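Archive entry. Fields below.
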Amino acid sequence: MTLLSVEELAVAYRTSQGTVPAVRGATFTLDPGETLGIAGESGCGKSTIANAMMRLLPDGTAVSGRILLDGEDILTMKPGRLRAVRWSELAIVFQGALHALNPVRRVGWQIGEAIELHERAISAAAVRARIASLLERVGLPAERADDYPHQLSGGQRQRVLIAMALACNPSVLIADEPTTALDVMVQAQVLELLQELRFAHDLSMIFITHDLSLLTYVCERIAVMYAGRIVEEGPSHEVFESPAHPYTAALAAAFPTIGDRASRMAPSGLAGDPPDPMDLPSGCAFAPRCPLVEDRCRTFDVQLTDAGDARRAACIHVPAATGPR
Amino acid sequence: MNPLLSVEDVHVTFTRQGIVARAVDGVSLDVAAGEVVALVGESGCGKTTLARTIMGLERPAAGIVNFDGHAIDRKRLRAYRRKVQLVFQDPTGALNPRHTIYEAVAEGHRVHRLAGDEVAAVAGALSRCGLRPPERFFTRYPHEVSGGQRQRVVIAGAMVLKPQLLIADEPVASLDASVRGEILKLLRDLVDGQGLGLLVITHDLGLAWNIADRIAVMYLGRIVEIGPCEQILERPQHPYTKALLSVVPESKQLEQQILVGETPDPRNIPRGCRFHPRCPLVQHGEAERAGILNECRTQDVALAPTAGNHQVACHAQVRR
Amino acid sequence: MTATTSPPTERLASRRIAWIRRRRALADLWRRFRRDRPGLFGLVVLTLIVFMAVAAPLIADPARFDLLAVRDIEEWQSPNSSHWFGTDDNGRDVFAMFVHGSRVSLLVGLTAAAIAIVIGSLFGLTSGYTAGSWLDRVLNRVTEWFLVIPFLPLAIVLVSVLDEPTLFGLIKPGLGVIVFVIGITSWPGTARVIRAQVMSVKERLYVDRARALGANDRHVITRHILPNVTGLIVANATLTVPITILTESTLSFLGLGDPTRQSWGRILNEAKQAGAITRNAWWYYLPAGIGILLVVLAFTLIGQALETILNPKLRERES
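PREDICTED_STRUCTURE:
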């Protein structure tokens, strides 16, 4: 029974320079209790998907497709229903930079704000008790509620954001680059916390990051995005260890395994850069940088095709791909 | 053979409102020509402060920074800066958006009033850093090229002075993952081809695995482990290094050792071994069983050699 | 990556590269300015007014408002074919007074603004670059001191007291005093804005890089700080002019201006004193009033357009 189902989601921003297609048709599902990882670099559209799910996109953005939460389409919800759903069923954890929190409000007040917006009749004492228990659940002493964001370290701020996200007991948690600005050890602590919370509250999670190797620890399934499309999807270890799409292979190689002789003194990367969404090449968007490129790649835009057991990849080298041969 | 750079027992402190923060608390380090040394550590360990001190942007409270056999003279910093150059973490911020790429690279040439054809020097630096044909980039602005190319421009700007040592502070941290490899390859090629010394400051152990010959692990202002890269990353001896490796997604180790709490503030360095409050050996009782718990708590420990060029600052190792 | 094609170049002299850059920057500036409709409107209006001021003697004969020469002209005429803006209570041609009055308004406004900009920029640059030092503190106190001087009482005092040139002959009675007063009371605003910008640029990473390359203060100031501050100075200057023009009009309206020269403020003063409002002789006071309004509006619109284009923060949001 699928909890969240995204169908052919397409998002295009309107800017003074024209329309920017940030997401060009993404389809994926999330089952209850499952963690899905979305990996990709800058400009691939992963954060746009997160914002689209919460309907936090700027006015005037063109959105098409469906995002079904328990059968209801988030994109067509009326404002009242959307407000009720936001946070109490679907919550988001942003990158814990200083500007994710209001700098002039104590952190306890900010967590309480979420609670009070959803439970109007709750008493002040009950709110305080909830804040204290939330902070403890994320590993912070309850007295921290009286601190301002700048008094906390990066790791502590990230925990506050997680506490805020859990304030209304959502069923789905979206984590958008939650550990990117943190030290390796603090990152490990935060990931451990997320795993604990996941099992304690039976949360389903969507974990968005550019660090592919990280996702193999945290997620059961991974979707790799490039230029607004999902180019590969499947069980996390399989995708990381034997990628079906050349971009996934390149991305995995960018995070060398320590102890692996092949990557010692051999940094591997791709030439060129992630494409400008306003200036996408014809055919496969990855063709200009692909080490396995062939002539037909430049004219034929491959779709996601089955590439094995519960795996899909958008590359002509996948045996089942249809197209000009 | 004399090392190119030799840092001897350097201490750097910052005082604010009467409280002293010991950002670098006694560090000695050598970098030879043609060698890549990675200085790894988490934020607050003092690695950036050390880099800035080596560059002459900060003044050490004690200790000497030796370059090519001579202590650096603060009065002759300009001459020093020709030989030691810095590569920044943020290539977009490091380039003046109003200057063309030509002007950005020529800046060093002009500042030092170097003899010789400026245009040829700029073209040469750009091509050596992979931006070919260089003339195509002369009139472009930083925002007109990609992030990876911007970093190449910054490196070219440093290379135009033909330095002997490069210090790279998180050179690829703000670049896209698929682009990092190219920049790292460029840095390694410059070291191998031109005989440069390179000191890379990073928190990324995978980067060290990719390009470093030697690695030094820093914690709270001190180097706690230093030695050949492969040895340290495959057979770490200091408990901090072991813990770091265990949580890095790129390592093959399975048993994760997640340390408790966060790195203490440099204003409050713990007594005894500075790592002991978070050390797994202390927390799981091994230190007590080995009879060194008292030393861990009360005695500071210095780097001591173990095998070959490998040095560790740990009471457990010293005992052995 | 969007590529801009540059002309094939072999051995470009570095000076030529700088020249190309400046030409492109100016063309870029003009292109963006053109897109700002209000700014363009302001520019057109200002051009017309400046043309009128410069060509004043050719457009209107000063004799037409010479009191002796107009003795036989009928007073209080409403606008007609021989007197486009009618005549005043003495038979002077209002149109001629209006055209010539524009000269003083613009001249005083621009000169006083220039003085304010020069003093303000020097103060702002110095205190911004040495921020935190004793010099900065001293300069800040001086700026604050000048900030609180009220221009009106100062003007009244100086005009009444000064009947001969003072301060090495620089401040002459009449227009000189007005320019002096406006200049010294307007520069603190500019100084503060420039200081803030200099302080912000000084902290930028590319300044750090210049120092790492071995640059000294002179290089940092001329190659990095000034180019990033000049735009702001220009935009600020353009926005200071309306203030100085309004100030001059106010002072002239209150009778503190130069009695020997025509100015729009003075026209308003004389119109009021002659009872033009009660007589409903709108042709006397309306042109001057609208003239002041248009000049102020023109400079303000141009200044806002320039500020949007040249202010790096606003520009980032735009793109």
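CURATOR_NOTE: Residues 1-11 of chain C have pLDDT under 50 and may be disordered.
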